[in-house]
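Study both lines:
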Amino acid sequence: MGSSSLLQRAQALLRIRNQLARECLAELLAVFVLILITLSGSAQTVTTSETKGNFLSAYLAGALAVMVAIYTAGGVSGAHLNPAFSLVMCLLEQFPWWKFPVFVAVQTLGAFISSGAVYILYYDAIWHYSNGTLTASGPRETASIFATYPADYVSITNGFVDQVIGTAVLIVGLLAIMDTRNKAVPKGLEPLVVALLVFSIEVSMGSNCGCPMNPARDFGPRLFTYVAGWGAEVFRWVKGRGQGRG
């Protein structure tokens, strides 16, 4: 009885009652999980020279990561995971504008922290593969583990259009899945359907720029590579690099 009472007291002390704080922590955890699985899929592919993974396995990891992330935070924060989705919810008056910058900051922070976790997880592999040099270009570049980069034939204009169209398809698909007037997705399986949506976009629109479709997913990890030693090159439009994998 004593240990049970002590546990209940500890739970009471740790319980977060502020709704915004609960939503932010849920969103942070969900994005952390999302990026951890997504980037790990890329890291495994890159650092093994595609002997233990390829673009398809990396895309699948990213899609399934979305499913896990939605199950993680869907009941608390709605599992936005993506500033683009949060913006659309604001425009549709389904999410308050004052929460928008808070969610964007939390989503970006979650992606940044998760990038650090992937770097630690694959630290030896990254340094072994890169021959001790962290670069964003060349045959042994490793920046594409974390962020997405254009193929060598893609212009800035085409890259912009690519991301607008890919993100638009994602948002339209999400809104269709959420629309109660449409044929309903079986309750509890919505995250799986969203994962299939993401996977369909990745395997059909991923060749140009790696198909991030999420500003926080790209900027958070890119910022991490900048401060972790890859340098300012990660923010330049340099072609001929690995593209990132979803």
User: Anything to note?
Assistant: The chain has a mean pLDDT of 89. The radius of gyration is 19 Å. The chain is about 65% helix and 0% strand. The chain has one domain: 19-232.
